[in-house]
Each structure stands twice: as C-alpha cells, then as structure tokens.
Amino acid sequence: MAGTGVLPFIRGLDLTLNNLEDDRFPDAVEDMTSLRWLKLTSTRLKSLPVELEKLQKLEHLTVKKNCVGSLDVNFSQLPCLRTLNLSRNALTSDHVPAGLFENEELTTLDLSHNQLSDVPEGLFKAKSLLVLNLSHNRIEIMPSQLLMATTDLLHLDVSHNDLDALPPQLRRLSNLQVLILSHNPLSHFQVRPLPSLTELRTWHMRQTQRTNTNIPTGLEALVHLSDVDLSENELTKIPEGLLTLSNLKRLNLADNRIVDISADIEKWTQLETLILSRNQIKALPNTLCKLTKIKKLYLNDNQLDFEGIPSGIGKLVLMEIFSAADNQLEMIPESLCRCGHLKKLVLARNKLITLPDAIHLTELDTLDLKGNPDLIMPPKPMEMIRGSGVEFYNIDFSLQHQLRLAGASVPKSLAEEQIQKDPVARKMRLRRKKAESDAESAKVLKGMEDVAKSKNKDSESGGENLNDSIKAKRWDEALEKPPLDYSEFFDEDVGQFPGLTVWEIENFYPNQVDDSLHGKFYEGDCYIVLNTFMDEQGSLNWKIHYWIGEEATLDKRTCSAIHSVNLRNYLGAECRTAREEQADESEEFLELFGTTLEYAKGARTASGFYSVEDVEYTTRTYRIHESQINGIHMEPVQTEVAILDSRFVFLVDAGLNIFVWYGLKCKNTLKSKTRLMAEKINKIERKNKATIQIFSQGTEPLEFWQTLLDDPEALEDAIPEGPPVNNVPDDFQPIIPRLYIVGLGMGYLELPQVEIPGHKMKQEHLQTKNVYLLDCYSDLFVWVGKKSTRLVRAAALKLSSELFAMLLRPEYAMIHRVSEGTESQVFKSKFVGWDDVIGVDFTRTAQSVQRTGADLNKWARQQETKADLSALFTPRQPPMSPQESAAFALEWNEDLEKMEAFVFEGKKFVKLPEEEKGLFHSADSYVYLCRYWVPPEESDDADHDDEDEPEEEDQCVIVYFWQGRDSSNMGWLTFTFSLQKKFEALFGEKLEVVRMQQQQENLKFMSHFANGLIIKQGSRKQTQVPDYKAEPEFYHIRSNGSALCRRCVEIQPDAALLNSNFVYILKVPFDPLDKSGIVYVWIGSKANADEAKVAENIVSSLYDPDRFSVQILNEGEEPNNFFWVGLNGKKAYDKDADFMNYGRLFRCSNEKGYFTVSEKCSDFCQDDLALDDIMILDTGEHVFLWMGPRCSEVEVKLSYKSAQVYIQNLRAKQSERPRKLFLTIMGKESRRFTRCFHGWSHIKAIPR
C-alpha cells in the first residue's frame, strides 16, 4: 500500500458495518499512532485484533455487536484506555482477563448482553469506574467487595440477570445517579439502602417482585429522583414513599394490581409522564388536575368509565398524549378537548356512544377510536366543513386560509359573521373586558393624549412636514427587494465581527479563504474582500471590494462582481462595491493588508466553463436488484460474460455506449427502472451523446459481447451457447453503505460515521460545509460540499485512498470524486428520494401496498398538496376607457407605414383586395404584413447641438397570421415553409411572426381596423352548390373590455339572440341568387351610440347600395314583414347584459404539476374553453362549472371546491348579487352560459 502520510494524524476512526472477520482487520491501523477513539461495531470480529496493542494513545474502544468470545489483547499496552464497550458479544466470565481492570484510567465499562455467569474476577480493582453496565447476563451474586471498591460509581445497570439480593454495601455508593435493577428475582432484597443514595436520579425495578411491604417509606431525602419504574410488580396501591418525591418527572406503575389512586399525588408538581396501564383503576382523583406539567398520561386496560375521569382534566393544558384504550368509557369530558397541546388521543375498544362537539376543534395527529361499534361522531360545525381532508388531497379550502395565501384581507362581513358563530370566543372576550383594570385604561388614555399633542405640534410647525409625508416616493425608493436566499453563498455569521473576510471565485461560487492567505492574490483568480468595522455610532458597517487578476477568466470576473452585490444585499449594507484591478488598487484597499500585496502566478481555483477535451470513460457493469429503500439497487460487478444471470437486469456503462440487458426471468419493474436510469445517465451525465441499446437475453448485439471481453479476438469462443448460469445466491443482501464525515482539527484528522436511522440515507445528511466519504464496498465516493475548505478537501482525498486500501475490496472497486450539484446517478441512487428514477411504482395497487402493513390513510393525511387559488380573489380587470383606447390606436396607427394582406386559397397565398382588409372568414387563413416605423434612440451626448444632422430611422416588420376556427392547419404549414422563408430573406432579424386564432387577436393588430374585425362564417371562395339559395345573414357587434376589442361576428339568424344592449345587422335577400335585398341595422334601447355608427359604416362597406336598401331600426320599431321573417319569427329576447360588467372566466388545471386557477382576460371567447380542464364562468348572476371531456377526477373535485370558495368570497364582497353554482358539460350549455361568449357557434370536433 502506498502510504499518503496521513495515518499518524488520524485521531478517530469508525469502521462500523465493515467485514473484518478472518484476518481482514486492516494492518494500517498500527500506523495510526495518534488514534484516540476506534469503533468496531458489527464487524464480525471473533477476537480482539492484536494490532490494538500498538495504539498506546487509544482512549475509547467500541467493539459491540460482534462475536468476540475472548480478550487476548494485553490491555497493559493501552494505558490511556478510558471507555471500553464490549456489549452484545459472546464473552464468558473465564475469558475476561483480570489485567483489564488494572488500568487506572478506565471509567466506563459495558459488558452487557454477554454470557457472564459471575462478575468478572478482578473487577473490584477498577476503582476509577464511573459507569458499569452488566445487564442481560446470567449473574447470580453481586460481590460486596465490588461495591466497596467502586464508590465513585455514577451509573450501575445490572438488569436482566438472576440476582436474588444486593449486598448492603450498596449504601456506600453515595454518588450514584442511575440504578437499574429490573428483571431480577430480588426476592430477599428490601431496598433498605435506597434512602442513603441521596444523589439518585433514576431508579428502575421493573419485574422484581415488589409489593407495598418491601419498598421503603422514607424517601424524602431523594430530592433529585425524577425517573421511577416499578411496573410489572404486585403493587396494590401507590407506595407511600413515592408520594413524598416532589421532583418526580416520570413514573411507570403499569402492570400492577392498583385499584385506587391516592389524592396525595398532587405533590408531584413536576410530573410529566404517568403510566398506569393494565391495572384495576376505576376512578382518578380530582387532584390529578393539579399536575399542570403533565404531558403524557397512559391509562390503558383499566376499569375507567365516564365518572372516573375528572371533569377538570382540561386544566392539564400541556398534555400531548392521552391514552385510555380498553376501558369502559361511554363518553369523555368536554374539557379534555380543550387541551391545546393534545396531539394523540387513544380511546380504542371502549363503550363510546358519542364524543363532545369540541372534538372537531382539536388539532390531533392521532385519533384512535377503533373497537367502538356504537360510536356516533358529532357533526362538524358548518364553518369547518371545508373539504380539506384526504378526499380533497389535504388542501384547505376555507376562505380565510385561501385569502391569506393570496395576500388578501378577510372581508369585514365574513369576519363579523364568524365572531357571532363562535360562542367560546365571545365568552373569552367578555372575560377579558371584565378583567380590564383602571391602570390599563389610564395608560391607553395617556398614550392617546401624547399622540394628539405630537400631532398638534406638527401642525403648528408648518406644512413642510406634511408636504414631505405626502410627497411621492422616487422610483428607486419604491422598489422592493425580491426575497432572495443568499445562504447558499455566504455563512450566517458573515460580517458580524470586525475584521477582514476574503472569498475566491471557484466554479461560479465564492469560496472563503483562510486567514493565513489574506494579501496573497493569484493573477488568474478573482476575490471578494469584506472589511467589517465599527462606525462612530458603535454599530457594524462594511466596505466591499472585488479584486480582478490580469489573467482571470471571464466567468471569474463576472461572478466576483455579481457575488459582491449579493454580499451587500445579504448584509443590508448601504456601501458601494469597489472594483479593484491588479496593479491598480486604490489606497483604501491597500491599507486593508498593511503592506504591499503579493501576486502569484497562475490560478488557485478552477474555471466554471467547460473545457473541450476528450473524456476517458471506465467501463462499469451493474447488476440491478429491487430495493425497498431506493426502488433499485445498482450492484457493481466484474465486467465479464460470466456475471450474467437471467433473473436480473444488467446495465453496462461504457461511456458513449450504454447497454441494458434483460434476463428472461427478470421482473418488469426492474426493466422499466433500469431503462429510465440509462436515459438519465445519458441526458444528465453524457449530454445526450451516448447511444443506449436495450435488448433481451438471446438478442445481444456484437458490440455488447465485445465490451464484456478483454480479448475481442476470442469473441466466438467466449459467447455462451446456452442460457447463463444462476451465479447470484438466493439470499444475497447488498452491503449497507457507510457514510463518513471528514473531520479536520489542529493537527489531527477524524473519520466518524454519520448516524443514519434505519440505514436510509437522505440528501439532507450531506451538509454543504463538509466533505463526506460514502463507502459502498465496490465504490468509494468522495462528496465535496461547495462551502468546504481546501484543507478538508485535500485531507478527504488522502483519507479516501487510505480507507480504500486498508479494507479488502474486489479488483473492480473504484474511487469516485463527486462535487455538490454534479452528483452522478449511481451516487444519487444510494439516497432515499433523491431524483428517483420512478417516483411512484405504478405496477402496485393500493391493495397490494396495504398488504405490506403500510397505513395508506396515515400517509395520505401527511401529504402536502400544493394549490394556487389566488386568481379567484383578485379584482376583475377594469374596462379600458374610450379615451385610452383611442390613444393606443392613434399611437399604433401612426407608427404603421404600410400593411399588405394575403389570403390562403387553394395551395398558396394570394394578395387580398384592398376593400376586403378587415373582413375575415372562419374557414380561411390570412397573413397581414405590417411595417412599423421605429424612432431612433436619443443620443447620450448632452452637448450635441447639431440639429441639421439627419437621424437614422429604423423599421420593424410584424407578420400577423390569422387562422379561423373552422380552417385547417394547411395554411400555417404552407406559410412556414414558403411565405415566411421569403419574408426572412427580405427583412432578416427585423421580422417578427405572430400567430393568432379567431377572436384571440393581438390588440395592436385590431387597432388597425377602425370598424373592428368583421368575421363571416364559411370560406371567402365558397363553392356554390347547384341548388344554392341565399340565406339571411345576421351579425352581432360587441366590444369586450375596450373599443379595441370590437368585432362584428356572424351568428345564426335567431330572434332569441337579440339583446337590448347591442347593435345587430340583418341582411334579408329578396331572390335566391342574392342579387337584391334589404339590410337592417337594429339598435337596442341600451346600445352604445358609437357601435351604432360603426354598424352603419360596416353596412356601407359590405353591401352595394344599388342592390341592397338600408334601414335603421331602433328597438321597438321593427316592421312585421321581412325583419322577423329573416330571424325565423318573433321571439322573446334578453333586455339586459349585466354579464358584460361582471363576466369572468377562470381555468382550473393541473398542467403545472399542482392545482392552479388562472383567469382569462376579459376578451375571452368560446375557444378559450380548454378540453383538458375545468372552467369557472361568473356571469354576475350564476357561477358555472364547465367540464371539459378530458378533465381528470382530481380536477373535478378541486375545481368544485374552488368554485364554492369563490362564491363564498363573493357573498361577502357583493352581498347584493348572490350567485348560484351550476354544472354544465361540453355540448350541453344553456343560453345563460353561451350568451357570455361573443359569436357562440358549433362545437369543434375533439381531436383524437
């Protein structure tokens, strides 16, 4: 092994979970002469390695959970040993050498869970012992000599032995704090020495044949005793001695024969946990309510009924757990539900009939009511029925919650209504008013007088202050800083202490520099320098500089400037960031370092830019296993043909070639997950440059066999003829990964392991300030945090080499360096929930998951579903005034230099006649080429007075593509491949293409047509059939939100579509060939006068006056001849259009990955109804929930609750206009729904 020279500096090492049996203990441990602590937990050792004798500075040794049967090490060679943990081994009394206890430094000894039949010989020599654990053995006698010698003991645990008595010398242990005697016969032990142990804090005697007669009564001297366990004994009442313990915090009296509880328990004023389960208790004393600090109360399996629980139990305001299962409770006191901290309530298997109504006011995490067949839950209060449970994905649809999320205030009417409905809150207010004192009222009055006096002084001083207060803020003062998080770049304590702090830029991020390197700058690097000092007022102030080297790369220069501003924002400093360049530094900057700066050639840090170089890939082969923790486990194996097994999937990573081999007997879930893993490796790590080949057993390509073979020439002989042999044992278990954290101190190194519950590593275990080693046996990863120091990184690389070499590993094992933010997929697969290949296993059903024992309801209740309903609470978009619309139209038309129009006919675009501009057909596509004048930019030179110099004018070109709702996409395809190419060649970068659908046009485009857009049904060159007969044409003129959104849309001739608020055009032909006829302009009684003029202009442009006569009709003046005939008869129609003032359209969708509600603009149309989503339409009178044919069940549920919240909010804000909720589906819309959409027409065919 090639040493790195770091072994003598290692002070701590944790080799837990490594296989060190059969002489696998690393010899390198001998060279760790400075080792202070060593952990060898679960390493399969059968004896202590002799290499330990060389560790003369070793202080703490842990060898638990092994198979050690003898101690053959000469412990005299370990003079500094203080702690020895040998628990859970196979030691016997004969194999514990007496020389072990001659060490004067030994203070902690753990021999629990062994096979000791006697106390080890010579143990009494360990006079310095403070902690002794001999539990879970077979010891029968405790020698008195031991207790006489170890008088300094603080902790003694001899539980789970066969002790019949303890020597009276126990009273000599005057410093003893913990005494654990549980699970021993102790039939002849009266515990008489107990009152002498005045420092005792913990006393456990579970299952030791205790009765009320063999427990001392005088325990008043044990003032420190706080934890007592006397469970599983034969007590019939609480021992009198316990009633004198005033500092008791935890008491366990479960599994006894206690019938009555003494009222003297009120002396336990500090009690936090009381366990009385499995006794014969029928009632609890009222004094229990005085134990106000109690947090956990267990009363399971007793004989309690409703009368047996004190009514004032609600006074235990700190109680978190109340467990009373298996009793005879018919009801519980209502005050129990008033415990504000109650999180767990267990009432299973009782005789419950109902519960108090206040049960719904609690915020319980667990409510167990199983085994109560007659239980009827009380109904929830109306204000709590909000659909926020599992059924609605844990989204809180209460109006108050949603208003708070949207940043809106709760309506006053709603707040008042809630106050009236809460009698408890009303009582509390009345009590507070009654309890107000005269002193508090006087304080309020005095404060009001002071405020009035200060206002009078301000008014007398003049109007200057008033003017200053109402003066508008400057634009930069009104800006608000965005809530950015700079903690990723800088530590919390940055700038909190006077002095210098320096960062260097590395890979786009600032990296703090050690103090010893201040003043030394590399020419290829950039630095940020922070000077923290105390100003004249005694408060902290800052100066920030960023230094740029002559040879620094562009990314370092840019990031130094950016992060210096980030640092200023992070500190809230008001100073400017000063730029300092090499050899041109300011005097202020040079003074920070005292002497001249020291420049060094080259660069210390790496650039963040990618360098173009050929990457060398090492071929790695992984066998894929199922994993309950991470979905899949990727086990590295040797790259050879013999490793193939038909029960598994194999992934061979050869760099730019990735092979996925499916065995004939492998599971489908492994196939899909491995395929997705290969795609992720290609996308993220290979930038989509790799080729992925997926094949099954028996269909392997030639390249696959060549990759598995070292000698491609022997290809024919190496390819197996038959199926591969099953070479993986059935009981194969992957090796548990070990996560080490690299510790660096003043002259020493440590390598402890991170404690991971259940061996489930998570991304949160990796802290950005540290460096970690992840040992997976075949792979050793070195993870480097962004904020780790350079010295720790260097030490980690050396330690990784030593750790890799000191343990026995296969030939294909490798060391991988991983940087934070650029982790490989193989590394991520070792952690739970980090970029899972498949977040959800879709091959499993809810029933199959439940059979595994998982509580799906509990899991569902813990899920937090994101939802955004803020659009429902924003005010409606106000309409644009006529003056504002005219101003926009004037500006845009002044810039318009030329407009050319084309229409798609046949298979090409032809020029549109000038008189047809502004006329569109729903079955056609149009192209409008608009050239706009762009004013030149103003010169920055203020002294420029040359007025005769001509300004350069510029031009931009916008192509508007208009597509009718009945036209095909052929027009758009033809435009993109023909006409657009020509425009790009003519105008280059000045060209902009805007695609628009019918009634979804651009405002700037619509402003170019004074009469608005005229949209006719059908095609411009519609072919006439032989039996053609001219039909009446009916047009509806309407403006949505502003005059710019005015359209004249052809609709079906039907008198029921008339409305007194609009203007209509009706053409009635006199002959079948449409050569003559009459045109009516119908003006509603409430119609806009401007729209009446627009209608006359449209009629004059559409129809030849020589062929068609025009008649202007006001509402109520309709002739009985052609007008009503053209509309298919006279019918009732709407007289108002309030929906124009209240109409709003919302879209409810899950397309962002979470449920969100967004609002369409006021100029919405029929095609805004999304087929995949749910729409909410507010007409001012009704609220419609429109369901698209492709919406999901989730969207239906959440949209329904969203509509209810919206109506509830409107009920508070617009109480004079109550809304009702209606449901409608596509194709079944009513007239009340369709009238809100201008030009409602047929339903488009749903694309498949």
Describe this structure in words.
The chain has 1248 residues and is of the alpha/beta class. Among the domains are: 221-379, Ribonuclease Inhibitor (Leucine-rich repeat, LRR (right-handed beta-alpha superhelix), Alpha-Beta Horseshoe); 487-600, Severin; 620-708, Severin (3-Layer(aba) Sandwich), CATH 3.40.20.10; 739-829, 3-Layer(aba) Sandwich (Severin); 882-936 and 953-1127, Severin (3-Layer(aba) Sandwich), CATH 3.40.20; 1138-1235, Severin, CATH 3.40.20.10. The protein is built from 24 helices and 52 strands. It has an 18-stranded mixed beta sheet, with helices on one face. A seven-stranded mixed beta sheet has the order 38-42-44-43-45-46-47. It has a six-stranded mixed beta sheet with strand order 35-49-48-50-51-52, covered by helices on one side. A hairpin with a 7-residue loop joins strand 45 (1063-1069) and strand 46. Residues 413-422, 462-471 and 942-947 have low confidence and may be disordered.
